[in-house]
Amino acid sequence: MSDLPFTLDQLRILKAIAQEGSFKRAADSLYVSQPAVSLQVQNLERQLDVPLFDRGGRRAQLTEAGHLLLSYGEKILSLCQETCRAIEDLQNLQGGTLIVGASQTTGTYLLPRMIGMFRQKYADVAVQLHVHSTRRTAWSVANGQVDLAIIGGEIPGELSESLEVIPYAEDELALILPVFHPFTKLEKIQKEDLYKLQFIALDSQSTIRKVIDQVLGRCEIDTRRFKVEMELNSIEAIKNAVQSGLGAAFVSTSAIAKELQMGVLHRTPIEGVVVKRTLWLIFNPNRYRSKAAEAFSQEILPQFANPGWNQDVLKLAQKNIVLTTLEVATPSLSGED
User: Fold this and answer.
1) Is 217 helix (H, G, I), strand (E, B) or coil?
2) Model-level pTM?
3) What distance lies between CA 225 and its chain's CA centroid?
């Protein structure tokens, strides 16, 4: 190990600079001084005999060598984290960590309930919930940074062979209106009535907005004809806007349970239309699966899943992970991942 031209701390510093965009912000994120970060980078460049950053611009930009080292460094750090978690597992759930990923809606309204149930039984396990876009979450699962995730969008095509993707549950999308809107007096509205409404929607580039448009399209509802009066960047903001009378919106039923119970929003059925999307469980069958992740999968996931969801596939994947644990935990140094 003494022959290696870099240390794990130097790789962590390199990764932090790349993420934060500056030496100062990287130092702040690592709780060290900026001179200490600069010194470590200088030592690393001297040991490798190549420049890792272009010093000309205001933002720290990696050179080609810097990008190459960062790519391998992230794999090395990920395997170090797996190793530590595997060792923690020897304590048989008397500690350890569970890292769960989710896209925005599932992470805000579904996963906290699931994690709460898990924590009641395994109070000594530290649980982390990472809520990001479907794409970023999928990459985190593929890279081993997240044990498993529940997402509502499409998995990036380049990850289709790396991830196990299992239909997990159906998420119904409901049309919500202000409680004083004239349509709330109707038992149901027709599809054509939708085009008379003013809508509050998420940003047109957001993953959730695209998923909602696709699902509505399968129900023969043309969202291009919607009168979108306002675009907001969160489900909570949309609910508040609808509650204030600014328009209608389609949101997940899991996001409005409290508001419906309080009577501050109205859910309006559409004649002959039930709008649903599939939620997917994703995990990497080739990465180490902790005992905490297995317990979560076996004891919590089935309680929120659709009846008859494919547990056999998950059990088979878990069996394969157990058989390959030693291989994954002690990889070769060839650079393959």
Assistant:
1) helix
2) 0.68
3) 31
CB within 8 Å of 26: residues ≥ 6 apart: 13, 16, 17, 19, 20, 37, 60
How is residue 290 written in tokens? 């902790």
Give CA angle at 166 (164, 170), nearest 5°. Answer: 150
Residue 245 and residue 229: Cα distance in Å, rounded?
12
In angstroms, the Cα distances linking 131 to 26, 137, 223, 273 are 22, 7, 27, 30
Q: What does the pLDDT look like over 302-321, one tens digit per residue?
A: 999 887 676 555 555 455 44
- Residue 287 three-state SS: coil
Q: Cα–Cα distance between 302 and 316 in angstroms, integer? A: 15
Distance from C-alpha of 203 to C-alpha of 210, rounded to nearest angstrom = 9
8 Å CB contact between 289 and 147: yes
Per-residue tokens: 302: 């089935």
Tens digits of residue pLDDT in 194-218: 999 999 998 887 777 888 888 889 8
Whether residue 90 is predicted with pLDDT greater than 70 in this model: the reply is no
Name the residue among 227, 203, 76 with its Cα closest to residue 143: 76
Parallel, antiparallel or unpaired: strands 198-202 and 164-177? unpaired
Residue range 152-187, pLDDT digits in tens: 888 888 998 889 999 999 988 999 999 999 999 999
Quick one: CA torsion of 192, 198, 199, 205, rounded to 10 degrees?
100
Alpha helices in the chain (DSSP H): 8-20, 23-30, 34-48, 64-88, 104-105, 111-121, 134-142, 207-218, 235-243, 257-262, 291-299, 301-304, 311-329
Q: How far apart (Å, rounded) are the C-alpha atoms in residues 15 and 29?
A: 11
How high does pLDDT run on average in the chain?
85
- For 146, the enclosing helix (H) or strand (E) is none
Give the closest residue to 269 by CA, choosing from 337, 207, 160, 191: 191
